[in-house]
Amino acid sequence: MSIKQLTITVLIAIVTFISCNNTTDKASEINPIFTHLNKIKGQGILFGHQDDLAYGMHWSYSKGGSDVKGVSGDYPALFGWELGGIEEDREVNLDSVPFDAMKRLAIYGHEKGGVNTFSWHPFSPIDSISSWNGDAVVVKHILPGGSHHQAFKNQLDKVAQFLNELKDNTGQSIPFIFRPWHEMDGGWFWWGTKACTPEELKLLFRFTVAYLRNEKGMSQMLVAYSPDRNFDTKNEYLTWYPGDDVVEILGMDNYWDFKQENGEQDVIKKLHVVIETANEKGKLSALTETGLSNVTDSLWFTQKLGVVLSDSLVKKELSYAMVWRNDPKVHFFFPYPGHPAAPDAKVMLEANHILLLNDYIDLLKKNL
Ligand code: BMA
To answer: Are 31 and 283 in contact (CB under 8 A)?
Structure first.
């Protein structure tokens, strides 16, 4: 056994030990989001939007603001948020969302009856370079035993502090979904295929979840695994899968296939792989990120996303689908009132099996 193999074996042993001593790895049994989504499976797919309550194309931080509501009359059922920057003690995230506003709005979304999901594009714990440095060798240095492991734990402490401060008006911790180390099958992030092996990624993922659950008491957290589109088979999909004890939601991010001719059929095929794998494992499934940048096709919602979400297996099994953020300075993935794609997006959202916030609340009332 080489030194490298020995090091990896020892690391696996350490992380397995930490994970096996996980006292709160039964998130699927105790987390209300899991229970609720499981109960309504087959009756509707939650529609989500990143940063929905924070800003949109012609507004920011106005009370009650939401481009989804502006177009459809109701809020999304799922609210996406981005934590990147919290680990550097910044006051605003990567996309200029102040963390205090994010906290207030995530609590508001929860109090209204919606579900919150958090992504995290951290700056490197080694030298603070951004996540989009696919060649930077970071991961092996931040794993247990690595030179910057402590710096990484300091980052996790800040993530945990923010997420543990999400409390409802009775002081109870708010349940949420955390989706770390996503799109690891691409080469654009420092935890991606260019600078990190699948084994290293699994260790990183396992350590992250074990630390947050065991050291930071985060039993209110569900964890989502979401590679991008670089798989066709179940084995390929599971290349980076960190283990049944740390993940509750199996997802996929996919923008690319939608841009190819008839690509929505590939999205459907891949979602079938995700769904079948999730079902075998007793997990939930989701289209964790998608969209068409600047919604340049005014029929994209009914003709592309709507086609995918109406596939019979997808309709029967998928829990949620989320489109990315509406940033007037960068890009937007949901139309705003007056945009040529707005009427079509409204039609897609009006389908019986697509759940906006009030649809979701009504369905829960009927099912619980
Ligand atoms: C990307 C883009 C970036 C943003 C990042 C994190 O997809 O939207 O502008 O900073 O997500 O939210």
So the answer is: no
Neighbours of 112 (CB within 10 A): 14
CA dihedral sign, ordered 271, 272, 273, 275: positive
Tens digits of residue pLDDT in 282-297 = 999 999 999 999 999 9
Looking at the predicted structure, is the pLDDT value of residue 14 above 60? no
What average pLDDT does the structure give for the chain?
Answer: 94
User: pTM for the full model?
Assistant: 0.94
Task: Give residue 95 CA to ligand 1 midpoint distance, Å.
Answer: 7
Identify the residue whose tokens are 């997808």.
Answer: 314
Give distance in angstroms: CA of 32 to centre of ligand 1: 29
The answer to whether 103 and 81 have CB atoms below 8 angstroms apart is no
Q: How far is the CA of 308 from the centre of ligand 1 (A)?
A: 24
Q: State how many domains the chain has.
A: 1
Band the pLDDT of 59: cuts 50, 70, 90.
very high
CATH of the domain at 96: 3.20.20.80
Looking at 75-145, list the stretches that DSSP marks H as alpha helix, in order from N- to C-terminal side. 99-112, 139-142
**Average of pLDDT values for 23-49?**
89
Which residues have a Cβ under 8 Å from the Cβ of 161 and sit 6 or more positions away?
A: none
Residue 368 — pLDDT band, cuts 50, 70, 90? confident
* Residues of the domain holding 121: 3-367
> How remote is the CA of residue 116 from the centroid of ligand 1, in Å?
17
Mutate to test the pocket of ligand 1, among 118, 121, 256 (most ligand atoms within 8 A of CB): 121
Q: Whose CA is nearest to atom 4 of ligand 1?
A: 95
Percentage of the chain beyond pLDDT 90 is 92
Can you tell me whether residue 192 is helix, strand or coil?
coil
Q: Which residues, at least 6 apart from 55, have a Cβ–Cβ distance to it below 8 Å?
A: 61, 65, 97, 326, 327
